[in-house]
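Anyone have tokens for DUF1178 family protein? Sequence:
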Amino acid sequence: MIRYDLVCDNAHEFEGWFGSSEDFGRQQERGLVSCPSCGSPRVSKRLMAPSVSTARKKEERRHPVMTAHDQQAMDKLRQIVATIKANAEDVGDRFPEEARKIHYGESEQRGLIGRATAEEARSLIEEGVEIAPLPILPDDKN
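Reply: yep, here.
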């Protein structure tokens, strides 16, 4: 995995993790890379200093330090995400279509979860459809 420091055209700074430099390029071309603050798809990599791996850094990666407060917050966030998932219908890639149907009264009101591209999400928001991303928590990928 490669971590890039990124910046959007509105000067919001954030980081992104990618499988490779080519992966970043492919995702950017497909409009999948966007600013988490403003949603702008105009994102570029910032100049970064090389990361030097030391024995201390390797040990920190093996045993990340999480305070009791951090752990409590993470546990609460996991509970919230689990509750949302347990009380919502997973419609997968049909999320934008199903969310619109509910918004425009063409389908019954219910909780949904699913997938949408950054462009689809922006379009839904512009239409006034209330959506929010679910966080992907660290252990969700392991």
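Residues 100 and 106 are 8 Å apart (CA to CA).
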